[in-house]
Amino acid sequence: MEPNSQSHAPNTPEDFKARADKINSYPDRDSEAHDAERQQLLDDMLAAGHTPKAKDLDEVIVGLEKAGGFTYDMNTGEAKTVGFAVSIAGHEKPVFIDGLDAKQRRDELDMYISEHAEALSESGNHLGGWVSPDGLLVLDISRVTIDVKEARCNAAEAGQEAFYDFQAQSDVVIRKGAVQERIDQGKH
Fold first, then answer.
1. Is the pTM of this model over 0.70?
2. Residue 128's beta-bridge partner residues?
3. Phi, psi of 111 (to 5 degrees)
4. What is the 3-state composition of the chain as percent helix, strand, coil, each rounded to the nearest 5?
5. 45-65, pLDDT tens digit by residue?
6. CA spacing 20 to 30 A to 150: which of 37, 41, 116, 141?
C-alpha cells in the first residue's frame, strides 16, 4: 500500500514554524490562493495538540512591542494563540504608547476595558490590540474563528484592513488603509 501522497511532514513545532514561514514568504501571501494552506496548518496544529502557551494580560502588555499585538479572552483570562482573529468595526481606539511604561499601558488598557465592558462581556468577543507601523497601539474588540474563509469574509464585511493568522503569526491584508480611514474619520 502506498503512503498517502497528501500527508504532511511530521507535526512538530519546527514543522509548524517552517510551514508558517513558507506561507509568509509568498509574494502574494495575503491572497485567497493560500487559504487552504493556512487552514491545513491550523487543522494539523489542533490535531497534534500544538497550541502555544497562553499568557495573562500583564505578560501580554510587557511583551507587546515584540509580539506586535494580542487577542485576549476576558472570560478565560488567557491570550488566544490559535485560529484567525477579526476585529469588530467601530471599537478601534488609538493610543500613543511611546514613552509609556508598563503601568501606564495597563492604565490605558483598563480604561478601554471599562469603556467597552458591555461589548467585551458578549460571548465570543475578545480584547485585542496591535502596534501600527508608526508605533500607535490600536485597541479593539475581535472575534476568533478556526475557519479561514469565515475570517476573510467577516473582515471584508466589517470593512477591516486585515485579519490575523495566529499560526503564521502575521496579518492577512485584504484592504490596505481601511482602519486608518475610520480612525481619521472619527468612526472608532
1. yes
2. 71, 140
3. -65, -45
4. 40, 20, 40
5. 888 877 666 566 777 666 666
6. 116
Calpha distance 154→84 (Å, rounded): 11
* Overall residue count recorded for the chain in this entry: 188
Q: Would residue 92 count as lying in a domain? A: yes
Residue 88 maps to a domain: yes
Q: Are 47 and 11 in contact (CB under 8 A)?
A: yes
| Three-state DSSP class for residue 107 | helix
Neighbours of 142 (CB within 10 A): 28
Cell 485579519 belongs to residue:
163
Q: Do the domain assignments include residue 58?
A: yes
Tally of domains within the chain: 1
Domain that holds residue 128: 54-184
Residue 179, C-alpha cell as written in the block: 482602519
> Three-class SS string for 7-35?
CCCCCCHHHHHHHHHHHHHCCCCCCHHHH
Measured between alpha carbons, how far is 151 from 19 in angstroms, rounded to an integer?
20
pLDDT for the residue numbered 85: 94
